[in-house]
Amino acid sequence: MRILFFDTHRYEKDVFRAANGEHGHDIVFAEVRLGPETAGLAAGYDAVCSFVNDRVSAPVIRTLKDGGVRAIALRCAGFNHVDLQAAAAAGIPVLRVPAYSPHAVAEHALALLLTLNRKIHRAHARVRELNFSLEGLVGFDLCGKTVGIVGTGNIGRVMCRIFRGLGCQVLAHDLYPDGQFAATEGVRYVSLEELLGASDVISLHVPLNKGTHHMIDAASLARLKPGVILVNTGRGALIDTHALIHALKKKQIGGACLDVYEEEEGVFFEDLSEAGISDDQLARLLTFPNVLVTSHQAFLTTEALQQIAATTLSNLSSLEKHGVLVNQVEAPPAG
Ligand code: NAI
Q1: What is the pTM for the complete model shown?
Q2: Which end of the chain has fewer beta carbons closer than 10 Å to its terminal beta carbon, N or C?
Q3: pLDDT tens for residues 222-273?
Q4: Which of 281, 259, 325, 220 is nearest to 106 (CA)?
Q5: Which residue's CA is the nearest one to ligand 1's atom 30?
Q6: Beta-sheet strands, E only, within 18-173
Q7: Which of 100, 108, 178, 206 for a ligand 1 pocket mutation test, highest count of atoms within 8 Å of Cβ?
Q8: Is 235 part of the annotated catalytic residue set?
């Protein structure tokens, strides 16, 4: 297949080239994101490969269809950036990578939490300036604390095990609680309200959809224990950023670890060190000493990249060679 990759970066090209050895697809890497202005570039390609901050809207899908594109391959798990109804109407299947090293994401979430709680980022900057003072660096033991995991799919389950290993009580919330998992791992499923009110650390691992959009808003922030640390490696819009900033200013919460941000498109993955940013909310977030932001990098391990490349290319090979749709994302019922 001729495949046009959008929003590609140096760190992934070699991994895809290596994985493509056994598939023999004709791959072209574009650095621009897929959107209304760039969709026309895909004319004449069999498939496009898209990443998390592309905008695969209805007009984009129409342009892809007009250009002869037969498949949209997502090299990620989330699909909130794709208009699935429009893709179904156009007869273009959307394929994804449903699971790839959940450990990559879970371990990054843990790294953010440990860094923020033990103030490693501040200590590192300090000692490099030969300031060996410990003032302001007090953290808390995680052992014995209550951690709330929202979403116990692939990543959330790894998080539950990690925190059980650290000696924490783990509360979980999911639309579909798994009683057997809870019993085996010593995890207790509770309502979202109970989890929010009882946890010292809360980590979000649900997909972004209508039911989860702004699940952490002013009302839910008001319910949290004082001092709670919020970790979001899910999707930015799970949290109402405006309400989060308000809660941080009022010192209602202890801190936030954010690998995702609701307006990250066009900012994350870019080097804006000279241009600066025009997003005042993000700029404000970056001023809090108790907020840690990474640029949607939780997936970024060698193992995860290799699995993403292997699954993405074999999804397309199955379609090309056998006409079989593997890892297809079905459109939800309209309405
Ligand atoms: P998964 O599909 O295995 O698990 C999601 C879980 O959320 C399921 O158990 C589901 O029942 C639950 N859920 C869905 N809606 C819910 C709701 N309204 N209330 C409560 N529970 C709900 O997904 P996985 O692999 O664990 O990934 C979770 C999310 O992490 C992805 O959707 C994606 O947005 C994000 N992600 C972020 C990455 C990063 O680099 N920061 C990398 C990979 C995934």
Answers
A1: 0.94
A2: C
A3: 999 999 999 999 999 999 999 999 999 999 999 999 999 999 999 999 999 9
A4: 259
A5: 234
A6: 26-29, 47-50, 71-74, 94-95, 146-150, 169-173
A7: 206
A8: yes
